[in-house]
Amino acid sequence: NSTGGDAARPITVIRGDGIGPDIVDATLRVLDRVEAGLDYRFHDVGPAALEAGDELIPDATLDSIAETGLVLKGPVTTPSGKGYTSVNVALRKRFDLYANVRPVVSLPGVVSRYENLDIITVRENTEGMYSGEGQTVSEDGSRAEALSVITRDESERILRFAFDLARERGRRKVTLAHKANIMKSTSGLFLEVGREIAKEYPDLEHDERIVDACAMRLVMNPEDFDVIVTTNLFGDILSDLCAGLVGGLGVAPGANIGDRCAMFEAVHGSAPDIAGRNIANPTSVILAAALMLDHVGDSERAGRIRTAIRAVIAEHDRVTPDLGGEGTTDSFTDAVIERL
Ligand code: NAD
Q1: Ligand 1 in contact with 76 (CB < 6 A)?
Q2: What is the ipTM of this complex?
Q3: What is the pLDDT of residue 1?
Q4: 0.90 exceeded by the pTM?
């Protein structure tokens, strides 16, 4: 299960559950085809780990991630209810994956409201409304509280990350989405730091938008946006909105990036409604793998993979039912591989 020799780069592969194993296996076939030089270390988390008689997040998985620093991950089911925390959130926290990067690009052949969009959302992944601090419900259940925490350090880190990313990728503009008019302390601090950081990047255009107006403008004039940087909750919502602009979650990849570790995955979930039927669209995980190759400096292979995916979808060749085709996960993957 390795595409390279002794010099192969080790990566941790988490196949996930539901449609996860099918679409991750499809992705590994694509990586093998381009001889990406990766040495796959397979590990489980979540339901797959529990089924194997292990912990929710086994130590062996954590050790592997710490060692490889690079993870390709399929979706993992988070059953609703108490006592079962999200594995995804736990991994982000454990490895300090502070930046959630979600690029969306229009793909000809995918039914969507717009063409030629290319927007990257950079979402702060560790604090804000999702910090999980101070969550209480009064005894009679009539009042609930949670703390939203924003720090200067984390704000600086994510804002610098976004401006650096924009510069490295030759983008023109960074839009900061906030709600400082109402959430004066938390969002106010984020905005203040953003203005300071923006001054360090005079080569990039800097733009500020109040998040609600930003959402409206994204729907009405999405071509005005290039890179968006924002706090956790707003980023969660805006990045799904952006995925919707190009045709939905089925074609959107995501990366969770920290200083020592990075995890690449589909944006969608484990799709229990279609699991085991060989009809899941593997595009998101394949594009996530392309992001991973970009991350390790192999943009040449990443580009080839994207070109192949675009061609398959544009030509409607053996595509899966979500794209209006009659193909399967396997036939779609065959079509991608033939073009590589
Ligand atoms: P989902 O994204 O799994 O499914 C939503 C809809 O989109 C379903 O109808 C599904 O069939 C369809 N869909 C999703 N991916 C598809 C694909 N690749 N090809 C074709 N159709 C696809 O969302 P959900 O049902 O809300 O969540 C299911 C489970 O996944 C939940 O337990 C949730 O917690 C988990 N989840 C995990 C992650 C992750 O691991 N990063 C992300 C989101 C949700």
Answers
A1: yes
A2: 0.97
A3: 47
A4: yes
